[in-house]
Amino acid sequence: MWKTFCGWEEKYQQEYLDICTGVKGVKLLYDTYFKVIMNPDTRPERLNDFLSEILGRKIRILKVLPNESARIAAESSLLIMDIVVQFEDGSIANVEVQKMGYLFPGQRSACYSSDLLLRQYKRVRAELGNSFTYKRIQKVYTIVLFEKSSADFRRFSKEIYIHHCEQKSDTGVEVNLLQEYTFICLDIFSDIIQNENRKIKNRLEEWLVFLSQDDPEMIIKLLNQNSDFQKIYEEIYTLCLNMEGMMEMFSKELEILDRNTVKLMIDEMEEELAQVKASVAKQVEEQVAEKVAEQVAQAKESIARELEEEKQKIEEEKQRAEEEKQRAEEEKQRAEEEKQRADKAEEENMRLRKKLMELQKL
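^ thats the sequence. predicted structure below, dont judge the formating
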């Protein structure tokens, strides 16, 4: 045990001692502790009550389902608890806690909800065979608790910590589309509930305080309001007395935390690399676009210059043609005038001849 303890980082040694001595409470949303205290097989009433408060209706867990969802690596690094349960009415709930709110929570949750829905369809169809109807497919609830919520939720409101989402028709017609989502922002809830004058309003908030708060003052505040949680805290206290078991659980959580931290660092580095690549690609694209634009501009300028020169040549040809035409007109006019003078001379000559002939007759 001592060797295990000495192998931890100093901050984790202090955290472990704080838990064992009561300076701080246990982080019950972490997978190992949650599945001991809220075990749906041994303590079904606790998870039943918690999920009933979230969903706003009484539910009863029938069994825990194997979680076969093929999560991508980046997401497993952010999960600190994940459980899938089936209720007595056949509906399914996926409850998970994320250390940090992942990007695109809506799209991501929709994908995993659809995966659970498809798994339910395949299972029910296999069980019922030819008697299968789609009426036997029940709702799928996706419940996500964020230890640190994503920016979308924080920007939306610092006063609202729980968001329920479902698909509805714009006409009001009732169509059971089976998928519902609940997002709970524990960081926003903590900011609200730790206000000195803020009371714990309802049963759901009591559960959230119990699961997310490790401050002894908040624990005392909860117990003063509802002594039902005292029995659970006594179980936790008994758990802490078993130093060997407690150290084993804490070590397991540290292993998960270390593994997930490494994964998260790799994911962040890969994301940063992708951003750098995208930035470089964008710069290259901009440079190519700029060069192409410059070449196009030069080509346009060259074409415009050639067109202008051609236009000028045409204008000059036109002007020469006009001048030729004008000279031809002048030549024609001179020829006309010469003809008129010749005609007049001929007429005068004829008149004189006629006159001469008349004189000769005399």
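The chain has two domains: 2-276, 277-362.
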